Amino acid sequence: MSGERDTIFGISSGAPPAAIGIVRVSGPEAGTALHMLAGRKVEPRRATYSALRSANGALLDRALVLWFPGPASATGEDLAELHCHGGRAVLAAIMAALDTVKGLRPAREGEFTRRAFANGRIDLAEAEGLADLLSAETESQRAAAMAQAAGAFSRQIEDWRGEVLLLSATVEAALDFSDEDDVETPPAAFRKDIGALVAEIATWLERPRAERLKEGFRVVLAGPPNSGKSTLFNALVESEAAIISPIAGTTRDAIERSVALGGVAFTFIDTAGLRERDETSEAIEAIGIERARDQMTRADLVLWLGQEGEGPATAWEIAARADAEDFTNKDVARHRISAATGEGMAALIADLVETARIVLPKPGEAALNSRQAARLSEVHTALEAAGVEQDWLLIGENLRQARAAFDRLIGRTTTEDMLDALFGRFCIGK
């Protein structure tokens, strides 16, 4: 990356005004900048109360300052932190003072974390987990991202890579003795070890993807006109998002809202009332009905509010409008509710949360994103091929391909474009 040896600075706390504002400085001139502002030497890794002054001696603020000599720092290089008051004027004055120091420049998006990656403080999987942690909006997203950022998946990769290296060593030993008469095809124990590794990686590939945590569990509310869909939709998303009217066909298009229930992300979709084509003469309503059917095919779950047995086979039968005078119960209703009065809503929501947790990644379990799954699939394919080959040379080549895929997975080999896309997701001060 161009300018990597520059010393960078940026605000790492939230947008001002705030009680505390944190300014980070990372690079070879971080110590010089800290000494200029604090006016004295600061003991490493110890919070020190100090006045901060500009180059002309003007008092900027009184703050806690910290000094982390590299490489034992968050970025792997000299790093200073200024914990000052979080007012806009205070932070602007400190940033302006830093901008006058030779060799310093403002940081770009994600540049502090990118330097941590470049200096070996974190690997690519941990960096992706950190990016997801910063954007997490639900407890399940936070827990999965935390597992990635803390290195759970990275440690697993290193374990797998170590096993592949041992297998590769066996191949090299066999090839060294290839000119002797006692060289045989791979023994059963060797194939068993590869098979066990293939099976273990397959279980990881079968896990729900991390993207599911962001998209949320998709729940479609379906049924004929005036079956209570919009009232239930508004109750679930806790807003008047859908228009409620006794006039059939009021909902003409699918309405989506994302909410968090029980720490789990959901996307609820209210759909047009379903009826046969010959029951409506309006082209717009007919389009809405077709879109409703399409939403049902894409749903993780359909809540069916129509006549019992007329919905999709896997739908939940919901006996809605329990408060209505013309209410008709269902023989096998999963839930009997009234969205208007709240009857049965708590039980329905608890059931939805429990069901979603089964489909989505487990709390605290590292979840693979699409890129990671693609690279791990390459490992799986290479190991499967190694497990059936008879020629030691071909087995060795497949094991080499598996190791290369592991390296791409954690960023030992990667591209600048991919890194730009990843670290561009971070804020300036991260």
Give an overview in words:
The protein has 430 residues and is of the alpha/beta class. It has helices spanning 30-38, 88-99, 111-118, 124-135, 139-149, 152-176, 188-205, 210-215, 229-237, 283-298, 345-359, 370-388, 392-410, 416-423, and strands at residues 7-11, 18-26, 48-53, 59-68, 79-86, 104-106, 217-222, 255-261, 264-270, 301-304, 316-319, 335-336. Strand 1 and strand 2 (18-26) form a beta hairpin.
> What structural class results from the helix and strand content?
alpha/beta
Overall spatial form: flat
- Helix-strand topology string: EEHEEEHEHHHHHHEHEEHEEEHHHH
- CATH architecture annotation name of the largest domain: 3-Layer(aba) Sandwich
CA-atom Rg in angstroms: 29 Å
Give the domain tally: 3
The CATH homologous superfamily of the largest domain is named P-loop containing nucleotide triphosphate hydrolases
* Number of DSSP strand runs: 12
Major beta sheet, strand line-up: 3-4-5-2-1-6
| Overall CATH class of the largest domain | Alpha Beta
Proportion in helices: 40-55%
- Note the total helix count: 14
Uncertain parts: 241-252
**Average pLDDT taken over every residue:** 86
Which fold does the CATH topology of the largest domain refer to?
Answer: Rossmann fold
**Main sheet: strands, sense, barrel:** 6 strands, mixed
Distance between the termini: 17 Å
Beta fraction of the residues? 15-25%
